[in-house]
Amino acid sequence: MMARSVVHSKSCCSAFAFRASAVETRPGRVRIPDKARDARVLVLGGTGRVGGSTALALSKLSPDLRIVVGGRNREKGDSMVATLGKNSAFAQVNIDDMVSLERALADVDLVVHTAGPFQQAQNCNVLEAAIATKTAYVDVCDDTRYALLAKSFNDKAAAANISAITTGGIYPGVSNVMAAELVRAAKDESKGEPEKLRFYYYTAGTGGAGPTILATSFLLLGEEVVAYRKGEKIKLKPYSGGLNIDFGKGIGKRDVFLLNLPEVKSAHEILGVPTVSARFGTAPFFWNWGMSAMTNLLPPEYLQDRSKVQELVRQFDPIVRVIDGIAGERVSMRVDLECSDGRHAVAIFTHRRLSVSVGYSTAAFVLAILEGSSKPGVWFPEEVRTLP
Ligand SMILES: NC(=O)c1ccc[n+]([C@@H]2O[C@H](COP(=O)([O-])OP(=O)(O)OC[C@H]3O[C@@H](n4cnc5c(N)ncnc54)[C@H](OP(=O)(O)O)[C@@H]3O)[C@@H](O)[C@H]2O)c1
């Protein structure tokens, strides 16, 4: 078990009080109120890596939940249902088809949306269907534009009396809660004002994720990076600004580079920190070179085109899988907060398998909603306030 930092928050992000069990290899069970114990949870993309891992984590943490695996491919769905065992079923859903979506959502209590990529998506179909059918919602979005579009449905979600969380995965997701916890601790101790917040992420290979994450990474290389310096929004080149960061035991020092990630904006606006940025690095080292070369050699318009990127993924995927077998899938998140009095606080989360920890992270957000810790509306992870 390598989960070294477990976030347990009490104030601004109490809805997401992550239990140690939520990231352990052999997790305990989570007690949720009787009325939600056998809730029906639809996991869209449940035949993929992140969705499948979320479904497995939910069934382990709360075995009475009824899990519906949603996807386009029945064969993959049946195989996932066989892994999950009793209390699970498959629903054939295409998220681009509103009729099939609303049909699938008609009979569930909460929908988890993991059917990315979220980059360059033209709408928030799943959230809109959730609001129309009064179904609670969590997504693992990792795209700034999509997250802001989701947030724009806040009033509609509140009017429909449903709770929705956007960017509720591991990073973004748990990393936002780590940042909120550092800011809360700094303010509680009144030792100066939070000034600089930096998110650093490391994942070996693709972290055992599916082809969609590869598409996500390529699409992100086509986006200018938004960061904040002393309150000013600045735009930077993707995969530039390399730093060598120490992720501690099990990971060591790794090179990380700027990427455009939604937690930068949400942390800046919600936590009120004037300087914020996010960097990511992978292994083996030549993948970092490859990402940097793609940014320099391919025009941004090419990297913003979903169909061209999907084609690129088809060509790269077999090589990536072979190298994944050697690289492993360790994941580490380090969040640094500097305050005006010179205080420097660091939070680190490390796990040997991204594909497992992303599922438990997402499941924690799902369980937070089911246990009634979140108010109606659309929320970023660091945003939900203590219920009265
Ligand atoms: N926030 C975070 O911490 C975090 C971390 C990792 C990944 N992610 C995001 O999670 C997403 C999924 O990654 P992954 O590695 O799980 O990818 P994956 O293994 O390729 O899975 C994607 C799943 O989505 C389903 N899907 C795709 N298009 C669909 C459609 N139109 N309708 C219904 N289902 C559809 C696919 O099923 P069928 O093809 O069978 O329909 C598949 O099961 C990515 O966007 C990634 O960026 C977020």
From TrEMBL:
It comes from Eucalyptus globulus (Tasmanian blue gum). Residues 41-160 form the Saccharopine dehydrogenase NADP binding domain. PANTHER family: CARBOXYNORSPERMIDINE SYNTHASE (PTHR43796:SF2). This is Saccharopine dehydrogenase NADP binding domain-containing protein. Coiled coil: none annotated. Transmembrane segments: none annotated. Gene3D superfamilies: Dihydrodipicolinate Reductase, domain 2, NAD(P)-binding Rossmann-like Domain. InterPro entries: NAD(P)-bd_dom_sf, Sacchrp_dh_NADP-bd.
